[in-house]
């Protein structure tokens, strides 16, 4: 048997987690001499000292709960022994109090990307077909299959054709105050750098989300020459295939229209070539899902280290997941680059608190059975392990759900999103993400058709079993084979490779999940 | 030019709608001698008499609005000239006051269906793959494609293989009070009669919606021999492929597991044959979408007549769409078969009023730009045209969103759902629908993979242009070629044909929309 291995995140912590595969049996003697009083499963916590009732249980140097009873040293500290701390009030927070860490810029790192007319850079060269409404999704799916089969082979420099299907667009309260979120999300996804500025829209005709409401004049950078004054004959019309147009006679005429328009865009996309661009053109969205106690020990700290490298290289890194940062709000407002950024963080948290309250739940609704099984006692512990993905840079900006980054926005950005994997990924796509990093402890076959997803395993066991789904194994940190820094650098180099065209496992299998919109407004 | 044709729904109405293609020009003399003062577009209303300001504008013998100014006879009565009536209070309604119409039972009508072990009857013989969470959707999609290519040709009596993908299952507030709706919806869809009682589930492992929570012991009729007492070795386990199971090594092992389990069910489904069953085994969901003013004049009245035939034949007919019945609530509570049924209607309306109010909108958020363009001034007029789909039978039961019909429930049922086409269709599938009838005026390529959808055009122009998307042309009523009764009978006979295996247009093109869950609870 391998020797007992426990990981303590901070020297002041009074618990550590068990790293060994299969956990450690009762009676195990740790290197410190401590004897386990219970079997402690892998990823779960052991009390390093006696914890009298009401003691704060510290991990990441933060109280993740209070002992509900006396817990002797060597005991398994599971969620049923802990009382969860209340959520931090949103008043009186430290605002932009931590000075930005002084760090050497990282220069000379580049990747091979597709430079767009608006200056942004794609990591893939994809034809995306924007849809105003779910009504057209079946028709677009049919057309996309034919385009892939009949047209795509003739355009070898185009990576893929993707229908941006979603469930929004009609049967929704489109004038409700919160409807702005799903609408701008669909709009901004169609402007994602991986689609080369080639916007084509398929519309039904009678839907609430009319093409001109989805894509008002002026939103398509450079390519959009439509005039705000509309009737102007010089303006290019928005490229819309409207199924209800009277010119369409029979189903195949609709398919023909979509294919004819697709060809125009495929021609232009096919003429593009990758070119050398600085690493500062990366827009990386980081996320975790299917988390376990190792997420916050191996994969997420390595992502955090890599996030710092990216920021030093002048790139953009977005972290997200409202319910997983809520319990660390004081750390984050302190790290904001200005009081305005800190206030924007607070505004997003307050909005989400109110949203959850309307549905009669709170942030603790985040945790899953798998989290608990994996050793995460509650949302506070999960949050601390999630936030480390953000590294240690100053937070330089905040995006509301569905908002798009401005061209000048660089550095570490908080993109406010639910923690739901698909909703978070969808909103990061809308923000302009051209590369996605996703850490998982329990394992998920998550993928997106719109953007490459680098999947990071938190444990070697998962990386071994899911050898053709996990792109990188941060479990090597727990195994003592690599340091967090080494793993962070490995990720950074892999990001440059994948951004340059190297396929991820999900891409190789063409595994992709649905776009899932965040619609806090009612359906009708 | 064809002679001017207008349609008045009730002799007391003070407006009629123009039926002619392209509308009627200013100066047209109607057969009554009335001269049009404006061009009136097709489907739009003309004032039959002078309407002084504040006059109630009557259609279907119901005030659909009040004149905002004096409107002379012969004018085009569009939505900008009308003030919408407020919503009817939910107190003091007539409860079960209208006696059930006495009607001859219809006997001797049958179709060829698949009889299930629980007594229900499928109109198709489909293998459905239930999913606990969106995380597995990409893997299931990959597996379904392989099953269709490699296995399905060996099982000629199985119609199709369908992955029941949805966006629920994790990243949601699963213990929120309203979360019961999406959960029971996914559960009940998997029990739809078209799936033959063969339930197979693909689960990730760590998701919130665990397989045993989705499908607790006892929910699978007959086939489910699991015991509420659980640990009992005699019980058949729920058939679950769990991707995180340690037995899975590599992506292809997951695909193999899904295919291996699929074979077991395909074998059993393939041994089934259609048999003659009475028309009373039909469970028809009726819906309208992309509506225009003809919806309430041609297609919906014919559906209503057909609904009465179905009820006379002992079948089940569900109508739905909360925001489209809200303004007719007094008619509907009056038609309830008992005060309890009327109270259930009121309960659903009150719940939905509150739901919309939480999102700061009301039932008027229902109407679309296409509705208005098609001549529907507001939700009151739209509602009156929508409700006629229910025919004139007594309302014998009410289902909450996602609920499943009891085996004994027959007759006309109000299945409370949003009006959103996909959400309504999804909830009717959960209720146990084995045949769907969908009327459309503006035109939509709507389809479902789980159940045949008969699409009814409200206008001949649409039926001509969309000749391979519309299954039946109710526009013949406006053309004076068929009566509502004749069209209703034609629909009834087509339903028996389609239920017996005749393919609809959407099935021939394999056009299908997404399942869209109704989740009024927060995401996390
Ligand atoms: Ca997470
Ligand atoms: Ca997540
Ligand atoms: Ca048993
Ligand atoms: Ca409708
Ligand atoms: Ca509808």
TrEMBL record, chains A, B:
Question: Gene3D superfamilies under this entry?
Answer: 2.30.130.110
Give the GO molecular function terms: galactarate dehydratase activity
**Which part of the chain is the SAF domain?**
13-83
One GO biological process this protein is involved in is: galactarate catabolic process
InterPro entries the UniProt entry points to? GarD-like, GD_AH_C, GD_AH_second, SAF, SAF_UxaA/GarD, UxaA_altronate/galactarate_dh
Q: Which UniProt keywords are present, listed alphabetically?
A: Lyase
Q: What is its EC number?
A: 4.2.1.42
Q: What class of enzyme is it?
A: lyase
UniProt entry tagged with the keyword Heme: no
Q: Does Lyase count among this protein's keywords?
A: yes
**Stated family:** Belongs to the UxaA family.
Entry protein name: Galactarate dehydratase
Q: Gene of origin? A: garD
